[in-house]
């Protein structure tokens, strides 16, 4: 989840940009850079690693200019390195980019055929080449950007400057957020108001496919086809709570938007981006206390974990609520990638059904808080019966974390909203890592397949950025959606647990009737509920079950159900039979659930808001269920 900061004005661009990038450190990054126009030429400094590395390189550097851009990067195309760090520089064009260019391979081939000198592995540099080509024709940066915008597909926010127009910045977006800050005789641009709130309270939020043309002390806004548009200036008078919420209306919405960073943090300890392999870090099966996990020899700890994995013959996943649905997806992952049988239990049922836990069983518990009473009781019972236990939680040193034999963490940061969002997707990311590690250790996956799976999970944070664009869609649709008398959520494969999670979110937040079903079960009861006032939410990615899912969808439609479908790409068939169609990026079946759950979170959030409910504190619910 990259960070962008730009400045045009009388103050030091270096100081403004570095200060702003520090405010965006919560997003996570692996390299950083800055470019400042100084006496007609751009001085660019980049560094791999944390922002401190860039600051160290800037010590002693003096800039006389008044125009600059800066960036913190989370790698998607190309490994973390200085050569892949932003800003990118092509024939006087300097550019920073957040997001992903989906058609970058086609653009790259076209540029190489033209003889372009491409110096990085990124998709971002290619946009700089396109703009540089256009500006040689138009001699105007705005026209060059306008001509380039139509050539890009994906989710992106971009800020660009040109040495030949030293008092100008152009910003444009289609997906990830971008905001223009209005100061006194100075202008700012950033990917988050948090970076600029110390300098100005006045902001203009860019919508998708809008362009901001900043010249001197003025800014004009245009549509993608160059027509002038009027934009509302928003004045933020933040109190301390709003600063903590980073400008979002609710903690839940903030946490939904934090999911790209949360997933990146969840996989970072375990994934090697150089070899595209997984080695679970600091699990602690050797009996090391939770407080000393960071002192472990990682290689020795991983060897012990692998030894344990090789010896297990069955996995139990125990959890409650949202964590239980994550566990159901874990069952698909573990059985298909590691070829090991898995049972998933609701903790409160597991305790009382007198379960049979055979020898060589791994019992895994999932709990955001690490204090869930039923889950804690289940892990204690499993230990008494001789099972090896592994906890996946978000709170280090919580009771479940301390009592388990092994320990893994969601790393999603504090989750304030009662309805879990980022902890759920972080859990799915961790389960992907465990499944890959299990499969590789047990010989069920080869090295090539492991690499493909790792690349898929590494791509998720950037893909999530694009999916978050549905926020505005559901905000506008909420007034119509709240008129339905009920919602049936359906899916097959890993989309079935996602359907149940979507239904749970609607019940938690909007207090509306909602049920999640396996789509193949429609004939066994749910069809009786369907009429023109029933919404059918179908999660239907293009996978091996797609055709069967479409058949189930037609059955619902034939009985008057109004269809809200989530599919892959521009699916004309789904679009034609749906009242609302949401296009997800193409993703591996192991990671699609991390993307398709986001629209369901946003739909529940906006429906609840339209009904006037407190989404952060739903009635009768608590964040941590510490009693039975």
From TrEMBL:
Subcellular location: Cytoplasm
GO molecular function: glutamine-fructose-6-phosphate transaminase (isomerizing) activity
PROSITE patterns attached to this UniProt entry: GATASE_TYPE_2, SIS
InterPro entries to which the protein is assigned, alphabetical: GATase_2_dom, GFAT, GFAT_N, GlmS/AgaS_SIS, GlmS/FrlB_SIS, Ntn_hydrolases_N, SIS_dom, SIS_dom_sf
Pfam families: GATase_6 (PF13522), SIS (PF01380)
Catalysed reaction equations from the record: D-fructose 6-phosphate + L-glutamine = D-glucosamine 6-phosphate + L-glutamate
Keyword Transferase on entry: yes
Residues annotated as domain SIS: 305-444, 477-618
EC number from the UniProt entry: 2.6.1.16
Active site (record annotation): 2, 623
Record-annotated Glutamine amidotransferase type-2 domain positions: 2-217
CDD domains listed in its UniProt record: GFAT (cd00714), SIS_GlmS_GlmD_1 (cd05008), SIS_GlmS_GlmD_2 (cd05009)
Keywords for this protein: Aminotransferase, Cytoplasm, Glutamine amidotransferase, Repeat, Transferase
Quaternary organization: Homodimer.
Function, as annotated: Catalyzes the first step in hexosamine metabolism, converting fructose-6P into glucosamine-6P using glutamine as a nitrogen source.
Name by which UniProt lists this protein: Glutamine--fructose-6-phosphate aminotransferase [isomerizing]
Gene that this polypeptide is encoded by: glmS
């Amino acid at each position: 989840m990259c960070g962008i900061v730009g400045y045009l004005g009388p103050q030091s661009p270096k100081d403004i940009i570095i200060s702003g990038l520090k405010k965006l450190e919560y997003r996570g990054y692996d390299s950083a850079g800055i470019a400042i126009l100084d006496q007609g030429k751009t001085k660019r400094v980049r560094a791999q690693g944390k922002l401190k590395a860039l600051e160290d390189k800037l010590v002693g550097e003096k800039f006389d200019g008044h125009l600059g851009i800066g960036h913190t990067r989370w790698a998607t195309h190309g490994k973390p390195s200085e050569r892949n760090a932003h800003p990118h520089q092509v024939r006087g064009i300097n550019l920073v980019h957040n997001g992903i260019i989906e058609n970058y391979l086609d653009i790259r081939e076209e540029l190489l055929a033209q003889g372009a000198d491409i110096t990085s592995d990124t998709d971002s540099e290619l946009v700089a080449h396109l703009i540089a080509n256009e500006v040689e024709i138009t001699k105007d940066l705005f026209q060059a950007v306008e001509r380039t915008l139509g050539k890009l597909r994906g989710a992106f926010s971009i800020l660009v400057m040109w040495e030949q127009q030293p008092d100008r910045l152009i910003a444009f977006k289609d997906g990830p957020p971008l905001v223009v800050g209005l100061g006194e005789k100075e202008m700012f641009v950033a990917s988050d108001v948090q970076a600029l709130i110390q300098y100005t309270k006045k902001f203009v939020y860019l919508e998708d496919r809008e362009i901001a043309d900043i010249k001197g002390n003025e800014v004009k806004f245009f549509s993608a086809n160059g027509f002038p548009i009027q934009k509302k200036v928003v004045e933020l008078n933040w109190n301390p709570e709003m600063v903590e919420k980073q400008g979002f209306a609710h903690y839940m919405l903030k946490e939904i938007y934090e999911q790209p960073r949360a997933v990146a943090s969840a996989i970072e300890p375990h994934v090697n981006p150089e070899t595209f392999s997984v080695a679970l870090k600091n699990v602690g099966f050797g009996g090391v206390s939770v407080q000393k996990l960071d002192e472990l020899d990682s290689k020795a700890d991983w060897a012990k974990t692998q030894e344990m994995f090789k010896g297990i013959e069955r996995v139990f996943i125990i959890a409650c609520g949202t964590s239980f649905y994550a566990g159901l997806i874990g069952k698909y992952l573990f059985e298909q990638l590691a070829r090991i049988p898995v049972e998933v239990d609701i903790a409160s049922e597991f305790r009382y059904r007198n379960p049979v836990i055979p020898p060589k069983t791994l019992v895994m518990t999932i709990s955001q808080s690490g204090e869930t009473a039923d889950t804690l009781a289940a892990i204690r019972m499993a230990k008494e019966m001789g099972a090896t236990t592994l906890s996946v939680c978000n709170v280090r040193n919580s009771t479940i974390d301390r009592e388990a034999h092994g320990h893994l963490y969601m790393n999603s940061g504090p989750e304030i909203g009662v309805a879990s969002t980022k902890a759920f997707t972080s859990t799915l990311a961790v389960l992907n890592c465990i499944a890959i590690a299990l499969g590789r250790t047990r010989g069920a996956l080869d090295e090539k397949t492991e690499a493909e799976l790792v690349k898929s999970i590494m791509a998720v944070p950037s893909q999530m950025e694009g999916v978050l664009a549905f926020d505005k869609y559901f905000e506008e649709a909420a007034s119509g959606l709240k008129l339905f008398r009920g919602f049936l959520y359906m899916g097959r494969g890993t989309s079935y647990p996602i359907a149940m999670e979507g239904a749970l979110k609607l019940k938690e937040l909007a207090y509306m009737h909602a049920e999640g079903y396996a789509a193949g079960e429609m004939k066994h009861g749910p069809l009786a509920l369907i009429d023109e006032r029933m919404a059918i939410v179908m999660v239907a990615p293009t996978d091996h079950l797609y055709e069967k899912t479409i058949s189930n969808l037609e059955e619902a439609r034939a009985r008057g159900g109004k269809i809200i479908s989530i599919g892959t790409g521009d699916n004309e068939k789904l679009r034609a039979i749906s009242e609302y169609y949401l296009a997800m990026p193409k993703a591996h079946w192991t990671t699609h659930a991390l993307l398709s759950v986001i629209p369901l979170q946003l739909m529940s959030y906006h429906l609840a808001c339209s009904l006037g409910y407190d989404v952060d504190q739903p009635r009768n619910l608590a964040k941590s269920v510490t009693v039975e």
